[in-house]
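Deviations from the work plan: none for this task. Representative record:
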Amino acid sequence: MIDAHDLRKAFAKPGASKKSEPVLAVSNVTFKAADGQVTGLLGPNGAGKSTTLRMLATLIKSDAGSASIDGFDIRDDVLSVRKQLGFMPHNAGIYPRLTASENISYYARLCGMSRRDSAKRVDELIEQLGMQSYANRRSAGFSQGQRTKVALARALAHRPQTLMLDEPTNGLDVMGTRGLREIIRDLAKAGHCVLFSSHIMQEVSALCDHIAIISDGKIAIADSLDGIKSRTGEDDLEDAFVRAIGETP
Amino acid sequence: MRFLVVMFKEIQDNLRDKQTVFYALLFGPILMPLILGGSIIGSLKQLSINFDQVTTLSVVNSESAPNLMEFLYSNNIDITEADDDPEKAVRRGDAPIVLKVMPSFNEALRDGQPAPLTVFVNDGDKNSSKQARKVVALLQAYERTINALRLQHRGIDPNVFNSLDITRQDVSLDGAGGQLIASLLPFLLIISMVMGGFYLAIDTTAGERERQSLEPLLSLPLNRSELVLGKFGATLCFVALSSILTSVSVFFLFKFFPTDVLGGGLNFDGRTITKAFLVASPLIAFISAVLITVSAFTRSSKEAQTYLGVLMVIPMAPFFILQFVTIRSEAQSMFIPMMSQYQLLERIVLGDVVPSLYILLSVAGTLLCAALLLLVAIKLYSRDRILM
């Protein structure tokens, strides 16, 4: 479960002097993501999705506000938060000279599993995500879909309760996207909390039980799909989105 | 102990990278000693003349000077009869040099006049001029004998013509080329250390940022210091391996190139090289730490290569500085990494006594600097900016 309250982060402009005004990337980000549900963080490019996820993943420190993952505070209890959390950034970032299973087992071992446990866990994940045909090939020549699956398996290696995926369907073809959706649904069904960021309406409406719309670093609205439609008075998520971020459709 | 997981992964990962393996296992340990050591030793060998070696000399008209031929033969020179056109023969390279005994040689000698000899030499050819120097030196020795005989014949003490008695005494243990050769060992060791860890350090830090694999890695439940230590450990292994291999190859290099032509004091036997390696070994930690820290600053492999490429000059600097300036080893300079190892290793190879205090200071100074650099690297990895 994720509970974010008033998160805020500003960055110094790259190349600018220290005195110049920092750019506010995220302010007033407040939303909840429940266990057993898929929550979508929907927003245009540059709205602050990745910054929000990075703060929640304890990769960068928030300037103000608070958040907790499964009850652990992201500022005070960093290691506990990381144990609860599987994070997949928006580019797979896997090691090209390692095989798919070596990539996964590296993360499992880093999370403290013994050699034997990690081998078992790798087999489980290969089975679960259907990666048998390329599990023992070096990942240098993998397709985007195969890379995404390896990265997802890696994020799941330590059996985290909460999962955060940053634009996971980027670059995937139709079948790849459908396959990934299936996997995400199954994970939520199994009781995981899945937070998933995207700028594609279709995808969010097809997959998410709960949606937080983020724009200009602020959460504009957060509710179920039907809740958003009724609160904005629009029948279509796209129109609802446009209205929620303060424009007229 | 998770840093061991990081370390083994980086080693496994980089052993699959041809570039890293080439530089760690081939370039530093084998190519550099062969190219550098081989060429320096080769050129010294070419400069120095070995009078014990038997060589052949082409002579025109040798029968006119039987005594001279006898003298040359007793000084390890075999005489062969040359063609009529010595100039052409030398220019074509058929013979390195040709000695021509002029027809009037015997007559002049008998009359107490200067007896004419011509040495045909090709000064564009190093081997030819080296041969010529050897033969001329022998001819001058022969001349001194004849001079003495002529003077004695006329009842004059030959010492009348020796008004000065100059003694030149070389007190250095090593001879002229010795210091250069002695500084070769620290140079090769340090270069192989840098090259051994260079690509691995870049790949595991700047490369990780570039591949964007750092972000998920940092979200795992482990301390960033363990990550840095793991990457440091992997670099350390490659640096150590590379420098051990270099020590072995230097040992074999000097086995094949006997050091007696280079001056007496030099010593490259197994014990000396082992001792030199042990004295240099704190540098393994120091250089690994430099590589990891500098590449942690940079955003991409290319940037890291640029910075480290400039830094590469530093380990070479003492080598070149010490060629021009003789710095007397002092306790203060022993605290400076690289500088101290250069001086200590030179002294070990030259067979000088090395005070234990110097070794102690060198080890302490180098390890301290390595530890400080590692702390900086850990600090760098703890900042938000590592992900930007």
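The CA atoms of residues 136 and 208 of chain A lie 33 Å apart.
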